[in-house]
Structure formats: structure tokens, C-alpha cells
Amino acid sequence: MPIDAQAVHRSVPTTLIAAYPSAAHRRRLPRLPRSVIKTISPLALLAIWFVASSAGWLSAHTLAGPQLVLRRAGELIASGELQTAILASAQRVGIGLFFGLTAALVAALVAGLFRVGEDIIDAPIQMLRTVPVVGLIPLLIIWFGIGDQPKLILIALGVFFPLYLNLFAGIRGTDTALIEAGRTLGLSQWGIVRHVVLPAAVPNGLVGLRYSIGVSWLILVFAETINATTGIGYLINSAREFFQTDTIVLCLVLYGLLGLLADVVVRILERVLLAWRPTFTGT
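RESULT FIELD:
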């Protein structure tokens, strides 16, 4: 029996029709690109900051306006101080990240793949991760002096724990059905680790990497208070002595931009390494 489309349409309440417009109607609705939507809130905050500063609601001694910050950035770039500071801070973060991530990778693999490794490694790490890393600054100064060594050790410790915890959880969270399937296909123990366990742990590892990179820049702020003579933290300490809020704000913006740049790199890495893994991207 043929279906009367008009009768069906008449039988549907008008409220439902209004709540669920047709696909053709939805396609006609204009939609802003996501890149534009993402810039709306930062630009709005910048506009509010500019208006408050220009109207005199914010004193330059309390918080310098964006125009003053830009002018100070131009002065530091012209003198070469800003480039030198960025290079010094990025170098410290890079070295600290390398040692911290390498140690976390080795520890997570040993503890995650072997029960004996877990018994030996995991308990001390779980205990040490509750100790505030910044609280170790006095001890590190006593042990290693006031050079770059304490700064690098602080950054390495700060990035170690997030990556270790996420990677360990990823290894131990591997679906046992996948492991059994690998054994059924004749994979050796190493083959299961290589083709099943490690790929399953990559998503968690990348989450830990993103978090570790964010922590590295946070720890750097504290690390560069240890008698630093170069770096973004040194600029902040010098500006604090003379109440230069424009320099302080500029350095904080630099910390944020450098951290954001590192996060973008990890996101690109995620798309490359996890191209095989479809995920929910929102509605």
C-alpha cells in the first residue's frame, strides 16, 4: 500500500517540525568557520582590555594596556633582549623535556610491561609524585648550586610524572580481547607488545605528552627565579624590581604563546600517529 507523504506530514505535530528542521533547511543556514569562532573570545578579551586601559579604568601601574605592551615588545626586540630570553628559556625547556620524557618512557615501559618492574618502580613513583616539585628548589640549590642544573632537574621532574602515569595507564588498559586475538594469530610475546600493546597506549601517551609540555613551561617560571641571568623569567624578575607591568605582561603572553605553539605541535603529531583511530569530534 503506497504511503501518503502529505498525510504523514499532517499527522506530525508542528512543534516537532519546528524543532527538527529539514536537512535542506539546515544546509542553507550559514556557518562560520571554526578558525573564526576560536578567535572570537580572545579578540573580545583583548578589546575589553584595550578599552579599559584607554578609558583609564586600568592604571598602567596596575596593568599596562596592550598598546604599551606592544611598544615594550618593540623596544626589547630592537635591543635583542627578547630574542635572547626566548632562546634561553626554550633551550632550558627542551633539555628538561628530553631527559624527563626519556626517563618517563623507560619507567612506564618497564613498569607497564613487567609485573616485577611495577613492583619495583611504581610504588616509589606514586609516593614521590605527591611531593611538590617546587618545594625541592632549596635542596636542589644546596646540591647543585645556582647554575642551570637545578632548573633543568626541576623541569625534568615536572614533566616526568604526567607522562609516566598516562603511559602506564595506557599500557595496562589495553583490551585483553585484542591480546587474545594477537595470540590466536600466532604473534609472539614481543609481537603482541609491538603490534597491540604499544599502539593501544599511544593515545594515553600523547595526552601525557601534552600535559607534560604545559607543565614544563609552568615549572620554568619557578625555575628561572633561581638566580637566572637570562630567559623570560629573568626579564620578569628584573621588571618586578622597577614595577614595569608592561614587561611582565609581555613575558606572561610569551609563556602562553610558546606553550600554545608546543601544544599545536603535539596535536599535529596526534593526527599523524592516530590517523587510524576515528574519534568523536563534537556535534
